[in-house]
Description:
Layout: H1 4-13, H2 21-28, E1 31-35, E2 38-43, E3 46-50, H3 60-74, E4 78-83, H4 88-91, E5 96-106, H5 114-126, E6 127-132, H6 137-150, H7 154-169, E7 173-180, E8 185-192, E9 198-206, H8 215-229, E10 234-239, H9 243-251, E11 255-266, H10 272-279
Parallel strand pairs: 3-4, 9-10
Antiparallel strand pairs: 1-2, 2-3, 4-11, 5-10, 5-11, 6-7, 7-8, 8-9
Amino acid sequence: MIATEEEKYILEHAYIPEHIVGLxxxxxxxxxxxxxxxxxxxxxxxxxxxxxxxxxxxxxxDLEAVIDETKRRFRPKYLSLIAPELPPSLSASCEEKETDxxxxxxxxxxxIKSGIRRLIRKAEENATVERSREMGEAHKALTEEFIKRxxxxxxxxxxxxxxxxxxxxxxxxxxxxxxxxxxxxAAFYVVDLAAKDFSAYIIGCHSKIYYVxxxxxxxxxxxxxxxxxxxxxxxxxxxxxxxxxxxxxKKWGGMPTRRYEMCELVLKKxxxxxxxxxxx
Length: 280
């Protein structure tokens, strides 16, 4: 488990959301470690390895050495790996694989496009933005509405469900809420300010039941303004995910700035005893 000074070191050198210690411990429920300048989390027989080195350029041979050390040290059954590039030796072994790009937005940004300004003004007429440190029943209801409507992948669904615990326990987390005139929650963003150089958009959604036109742009504008207030160099907008989300991020000036590859590995096949436990 890392010490306080090591956590400060990670946040000072962080450049992707997965380097945010409070986020990763809340999502994984695991203990945090540094292995050869790489950040990782372990919970029982599962390890999440963040294959983006904290203080040197990425190299496949270095990542391969860290993977080998992780296997020797923890002997995990499951390994979740993200990296700018996967070692060729792992590619065929991935139970699940994903390729994407991280999008970032430099701040302070230039003049906002006229179309976005119109949407923000429209939202301002029908909603107010709030910065909060907690999530309540309104967030639960909106999350349930979104999951039912969008049917997101299990990983995204679980991330949404873990947000109340994360926000309640991580000092860097903030919820940006858009409330309509009847005090209904029209949209929310969960963001994190713990990293030294950037603010991070973690997750968010908007309501179709209490729809406010431009609510997402209203919240994005608030995130940009807040990032400037806190002296951040850029806003980390996360992954592209799909065409609709990429279009929104590009509309705001977000650019793909770093490659992302993910691999889920099963290092030890379940034993007969494991199968019996699962069947009970």
